[in-house]
């Protein structure tokens, strides 16, 4: 971006123009700010962000965590560019009650605009492709799960969840799952829309009236699960939550035995 | 910047700012106070009665307490049964309060008198007795573990938020409906009639102190989608709070 | 209106004394509206019917008749009626309608002057923001600690829904209402809007929606949130009728206003103002309303269907009887996603208008700005189902919708490029409007990047329906669009009121609001990442810290907004008298004096260049 842009007789190559841009001191200082900002966002993305999220208890949740970290890293340079240049100009602000003198009169710079479009499109493409790959591997896993998945029928009603295990003949208000066995949730609502969200498992889908929705996952870590409703469903939406557990196969069998035959204490 | 100065002196302007800001904060405060008052519990709290007895369950000793509630088809019925309702709407309702208080770490025996008819649960799961000692409740002297989904008049379902610091508490009690054909359920507008409902008795053990909620899972908001509007969606009729203290 | 080329000061006050229009004002509107409403309510049997459908029918009819009655009472239909019977309004009556020489009274009349309508919108928007902001304070007070100890679940759910819809309505009109009406016609060198009577109509119709919306509180509130998802909305109590009626009335208002603004920009630009010389604010405002014209009818239709389901027992959205809740979700989001850009684009356009003035440099790459707006406008109608990734409706289509959604980041990136390029190598003059540009850059960056996670299907598995979403859209709608609108307020205040906005109060307010905003919504991002669902009256203790942080930030914003409101009221009455062009801007609105003459320009201006000819080597 130079004042005499367009007045040069011999048109330099885009590469030379780019090099000329980076020779300017102000561009270098702004870039330095940008690098600092980028580094900060790298740290947030890599360490702070995941620490806020609950323990991942399935591969789905693990890949969401990874995806959020990578997306933060992809966007860190974007933040770097925008904030680096913002900070630079902010530090060179004009104070006082009268307007500053006119600045340079350049109106555009096709190289910068072109580069900007190419880079932002490329970053967008990376995000799209990465998301599609993740989606694809999730649906591949679904196909695999179908073979030996345990079915859990989830019923959303205003304002409580209930679970039916057809294979085991057990009903419960808590979501109990054996570790490392694929589970297929079949979700239905008996009234308004709800959204079934076992938080630590990283899956979610709405419960609709008369339309069964299906999601699957494989719990791979022992511990407690919070089951929440993520779709406003009326008076006690906030209380439409229940707890659950991922347990060892033996513990799960014990629990099943204890709850078979309608005994649900 | 050019232009004439304002007519107001600096000190007057500062006063105007302070007064103006305080006034607007006060307006927001009044709105808040009004909403807070409007959402107060409509009834006085209902406390469980502690008894001197104790009981041993699974090797632990608990003090005992009792509490009694009723569920009425409408206001007239509630009044006739001696419950002085202050509810505004003539809805089906639990009484005598929507906010019950239970002692902590106690064996609570609860009695619910139900005087209403019934059709069918939306979610059949809530026909089961859940969370009581022994997994049963007593209906007019008979121990049962569930009520068929089409013979329920209401449910009394206590639940809580997970991952809280309070102990988990989940109790589900389906109330046996009053068959309109037998000598029990009668039209409510007929004065001088004694209602013969069913009496459900059950016991559960409370954990540490904490706030919980209860609501009914039986669709009794007539005339609305899934019968969960009207009484079901109006706080204080078929829903309320449970404080363990 | 071009025949009214007299000078305001020498023209006598028009006095068509025999005409009915001199007798009508807001007061007669209120009286006739209330009479219509009461007659309808009791004519249909009040609430004595006791049947769900009948009562809903009565309430809806009452609300619509209030609106129609008010419009009759204020004289909105006199012009069309006179035209129908072949006795069109005389010139003198037209002048009277334009509020000529009527002082403060014209603000309470069916006044066709675009400047009066602009001020009416500005006061109306401030009232709506005040009401919505108060509700936000109530929400955050309830969430300050777990236990929902401040208000119960009924009132909390109503607060969430009514805060949402109040703010959405306020944000849709916050720029195109006050500035689109007052400033934009002057900016393009026009004497008034293309359809002055429609302009008055759009404001007063909107005005009638405000009491209807407020009546929701007295009818038991709404449990549905502003999205009003069916079938919950079918189940809801009588307050829902107020929501339905508000949306239908508001949709009429925006359709009228949108058509009017578009027609004005297309047909009434000054001589020489070719398309590449139109100020970027005008381009943005026009694209925004042009996008609203196809979007809002679907919202209106969805509300009509909800109303029919509730009051005539139709089954559009009742799955038990063959309807579908997904149908509602589609209709809603086909409006809902374009709508966020209807809100965003004018706010951004204001900042693009401001930046060159305060940096004294030309707008960087006008064409990129247009391409950015056009790209967003075009793509925004193809992305709605990203709100429904987790609804279970056709997971197969999540991929395509993810692609279109993420593509929006490219035109959005151009917006950053234009503003950064304009700032680059300038020395920004740090007045209040310019501070808004910087606040926008940060807020919209955060809003945009968090949107990237939400647009991604796997990540949305976790984030959908959580507080993360709430924080994200507040960063875009409030952090970006409202910041733009407030910058516009500071920028155009001198032209609209003749006085400067109090700077010190403005700075105090700016920093309170912006810092409070970061505290509030960064706290909310954390709550969302931790797994707190949105729209909950109560939450588990593990979210207590982030919610407490959020509430503290909310109080800072509340205080900052109150300071701003004081500054506006005080400066309007006692502020420094503003010079004609305090910022040294080159757009046309700064060439007219205050008070702006009735027809804006004594001689119609001729435009020879775009308004960005700043800079040493500039043209």
In terms of topology, how is this protein built?
The complex is a heterotrimer of chains A (265), B (245) and C (619).
Chain A lengths: L13 H10 L1 H28 L6 H33 L18 H36 L4 E8 L2 E6 L4 E3 L2 E4 L4 E7 L4 E5 L6 E3 L5 E5 L5 E7 L12 E6 L1 H11 L6
Parallel strand pairs in A: 1-5, 4-10
Antiparallel strand pairs in A: 1-2, 2-3, 5-8, 6-7, 6-9, 9-10
Helix pairs in contact in A: 2-3, 3-4
Chain B lengths: L9 H29 L7 E2 L1 E9 L2 E13 L2 H6 L12 E3 L3 E4 L4 E8 L22 E3 L2 E3 L7 E8 L11 E6 L21 E8 L4 E6 L23 E6 L1
Parallel strand pairs in B: 1-5, 3-6, 5-13
Antiparallel strand pairs in B: 2-3, 3-4, 6-11, 7-8, 7-11, 9-10, 9-12, 12-13
Chain C lengths: L25 H18 L8 H23 L3 H7 L6 H7 L16 H29 L10 H21 L4 H5 L1 H4 L8 H23 L13 H4 L3 H29 L12 H32 L13 H35 L6 H15 L17 H10 L1 H15 L8 H24 L1 H7 L3 H31 L5 H28 L13 H31 L45
Question: Your description of this structure?
Answer:
The complex is a heterotrimer of chains A (265), B (245) and C (619). Chain A is an alpha+beta fold. Chain A folds into two domains: 14-93 and 109-144, no CATH class; 150-262, Immunoglobulin-like. Chain A has helices spanning 14-23, 25-52, 59-91, 110-145, 249-259, and strands at 150-157, 160-165, 170-172, 175-178, 183-189, 194-198, 205-207, 213-217, 223-229, 242-247. In chain A, the strands form two sheets. A five-stranded mixed β-sheet of chain A has the order 3-2-1-5-8. Chain A has a five-stranded mixed β-sheet with strand order 4-10-9-6-7. In chain A, helix 2 (25-52) runs antiparallel to helix 3 and helix 3 (59-91) runs antiparallel to helix 4 (110-145). The radius of gyration of chain A is 27 Å and the shape is elongated. Chain B has 245 residues and is α+β, with helices and mostly antiparallel strands. In chain B, 14% of the residues lie in helices and 32% in strands. Chain B contains two helices and 13 strands; from the N terminus they run αβββαββββββββββ. In chain B, strands 2, 3, 4, 6, 7, 8 and 11 form a seven-stranded mixed β-sheet that branches. Chain B has a six-stranded mixed β-sheet with strand order 1-5-13-12-9-10, with no helix packed on it. The two termini of chain C are 34 Å apart. The model of chain C is unreliable at 1-10 (pLDDT under 50).
């Amino acid at each position: 971006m130079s004042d005499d842009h367009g007045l040069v007789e011999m048109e330099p190559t885009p590469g030379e123009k780019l090099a000329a841009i980076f020779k300017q001191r102000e561009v270098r200082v702004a870039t330095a700010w940008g690098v600092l900002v980028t580094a900060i966002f790298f740290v947030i993305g890599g360490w702070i962000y995941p620490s806020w999220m609950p323990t991942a208890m399935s591969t789905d949740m693990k890949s969401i965590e990874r995806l959020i970290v990578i997306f933060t890293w992809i966007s860190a340079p974007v933040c770097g560019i925008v904030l680096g240049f913002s900070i630079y100009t902010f530090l060179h602000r004009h104070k006082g009650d009268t307007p500053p003198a006119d600045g340079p009169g350049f109106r555009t710079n096709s190289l910068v605009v072109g580069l900007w479009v190419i880079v932002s499109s490329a970053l967008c493409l990376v995000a799209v492709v990465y998301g599609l790959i993740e989606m694809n591997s999730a649906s591949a896993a679904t196909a695999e799960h179908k073979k030996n998945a345990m079915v859990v029928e989830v019923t959303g009603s205003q304002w409580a969840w209930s679970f039916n295990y057809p294979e085991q003949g057990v009903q419960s208000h808590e979501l109990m799952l054996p570790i490392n066995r694929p589970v297929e949730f079949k979700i239905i609502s008996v009234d308004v829309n709800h959204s079934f969200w076992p938080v630590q498992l990283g899956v979610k889908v709405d419960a609709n009236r008369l339309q069964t929705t299906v999601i699957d996952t494989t719990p791979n870590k022992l511990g407690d699960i919070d089951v929440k409703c993520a779709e406003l469903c009326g008076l006690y939406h906030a209380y439409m939550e229940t707890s659950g557990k991922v347990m060892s196969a033996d513990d799960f069998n014990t629990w099943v035995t204890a709850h078979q035959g309608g005994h649900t204490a | 910047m050019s232009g004439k100065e304002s007519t107001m002196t600096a000190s007057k302007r500062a006063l105007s700012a302070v007064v103006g800001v305080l006034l607007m904060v006060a307006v927001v405060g009044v709105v808040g106070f009004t909403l807070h008052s409007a959402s107060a519990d409509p009834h006085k709290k209902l406390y469980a009665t502690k008894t001197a007895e104790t009981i041993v369950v699974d090797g632990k000793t608990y003090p005992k307490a009792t509490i009694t509630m009723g569920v009425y088809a409408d206001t007239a019925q509630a009044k006739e049964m001696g419950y002085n309702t202050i509810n505004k709407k003539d809805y089906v309702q639990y009484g005598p309060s929507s906010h019950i208080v239970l002692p902590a770490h106690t064996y609570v025996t609860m009695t619910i008198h139900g005087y209403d008819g019934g059709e069918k649960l939306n979610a059949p799961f809530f026909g089961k007795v859940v969370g009581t000692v022994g997994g049963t409740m007593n209906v007019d002297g008979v121990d049962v573990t569930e009520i068929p989904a089409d013979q329920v008049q209401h449910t009394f379902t206590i639940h809580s938020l997970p991952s809280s610091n309070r102990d988990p508490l989940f109790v589900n009690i389906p109330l046996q409906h009053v068959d309109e054909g037998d000598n029990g359920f009668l039209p409510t507008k007929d004065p001088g009639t004694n209602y013969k409902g069913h009496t459900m008795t059950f016991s559960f053990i409370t954990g540490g102190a904490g706030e919980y909620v209860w609501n009914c899972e039986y669709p009794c908001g007539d005339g609305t989608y899934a019968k969960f509007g009207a009484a079901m969606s109006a706080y204080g009729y078929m829903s309320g709070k449970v404080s363990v203290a | 209106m071009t025949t009214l080329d007299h000078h305001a000061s020498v023209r006598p006050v028009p006095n068509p004394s025999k005409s009915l229009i001199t007798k009508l004002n807001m007061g007669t509107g209120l009286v006739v509206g209330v009479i219509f409403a009461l007659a309808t309510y009791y004519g249909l049997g009040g609430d004595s019917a006791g049947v769900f459908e009948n009562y809903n029918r009565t309430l809806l009819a009452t609300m619509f008749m209030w609106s129609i009655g008010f419009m009759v009472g204020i004289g909105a239909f006199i012009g069309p009626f006179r035209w129908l019977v072949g006795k069109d309004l005389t010139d003198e009556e037209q002048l009277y309608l334009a509020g000529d020489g009527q002082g403060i009274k014209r603000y309470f009349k069916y006044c066709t002057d675009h400047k009066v309508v602009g001020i009416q919108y500005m006061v109306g928007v401030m009232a709506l923001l005040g009401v919505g902001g108060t509700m936000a304070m109530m929400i955050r007070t309830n969430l300050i600690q777990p236990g929902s100890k401040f208000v119960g679940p009924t009132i909390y759910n109503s607060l969430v829904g009514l805060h949402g819809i109040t703010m959405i309505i306020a944000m849709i009109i916050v720029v195109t209402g006050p500035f689109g009406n007052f400033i934009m016609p002057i900016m393009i060198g026009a004497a008034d809007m293309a359809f002055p009577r429609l302009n008055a109509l759009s404001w007063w119709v909107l005005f009638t929606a405000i009491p209807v919306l407020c009546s929701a509180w007295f009818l038991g509130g709404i449990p549905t949130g502003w999205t009003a998802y069916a079938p919950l909305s079918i189940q809801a109590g009588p307050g829902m009728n107020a929501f339905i009626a508000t949306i239908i009335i508001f949709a009429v208002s925006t359709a009228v206003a949108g058509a009017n603004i578009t027609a004005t920009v297309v047909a009434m630009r000054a001589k020489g103002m070719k398309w590449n010389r139109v100020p970027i604010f005008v381009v943005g405002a026009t694209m925004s309303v042009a996008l609203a014209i196809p979007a809002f009818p679907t919202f209106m239709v969805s509300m009509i269907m909800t109303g029919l389901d509730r009051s005539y027992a139709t089954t559009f959205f009742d799955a038990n009887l063959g309807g579908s809740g997904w149908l509602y979700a589609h209709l809603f989001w086909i409006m809902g996603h374009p709508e966020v850009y209807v809100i965003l684009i004018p706010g951004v356009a204001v900042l693009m208008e401001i930046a060159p003035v305060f940096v004294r440099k030309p707008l960087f790459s006008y064409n990129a700005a247009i391409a950015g707006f056009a790209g967003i406008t075009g793509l925004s109608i193809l992305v709605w189902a990203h709100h429904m990734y987790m609804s279970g409706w056709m997971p197969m289509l999540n991929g395509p919708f993810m692609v279109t959604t993420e593509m929006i980041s490219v035109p959005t990136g151009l917006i950053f490029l234009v503003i950064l390029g304009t700032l680059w190598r300038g020395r920004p003059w740090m007045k209040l409007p310019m501070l808004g540009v910087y606040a926008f850059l940060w807020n919209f960056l955060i809003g945009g990047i968090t949107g990237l996670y939400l647009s991604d299907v796997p990540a949305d598995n976790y984030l959908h329906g959580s507080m993360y979403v709430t924080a994200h859209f507040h960063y875009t709608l409030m952090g970006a669009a409202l910041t733009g609108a407030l910058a516009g307020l500071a920028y155009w205040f001198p032209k609209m009121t003749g006085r400067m906005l109090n700077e010190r109060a403005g700075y105090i307010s700016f920093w309170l609001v912006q810092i409070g905003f970061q505290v509030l919504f960064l706290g909310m991002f954390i709550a969302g990442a931790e797994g707190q669902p949105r729209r909950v009256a109560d939450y588990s203790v593990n979210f207590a810290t982030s919610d407490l942080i959020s509430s503290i930030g909310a109080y800072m914003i509340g205080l900052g907004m109150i300071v701003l409101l004081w500054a506006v009221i005080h400066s309007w009455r006692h502020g420094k008298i503003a010079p004609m062009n305090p910022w040294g801007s080159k757009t046309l609105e700064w060439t007219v004096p205050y008070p702006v003459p009735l027809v804006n320009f004594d001689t119609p201006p001729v435009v020879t260049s775009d308004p960005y000819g700043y800079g040493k080597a500039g043209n």
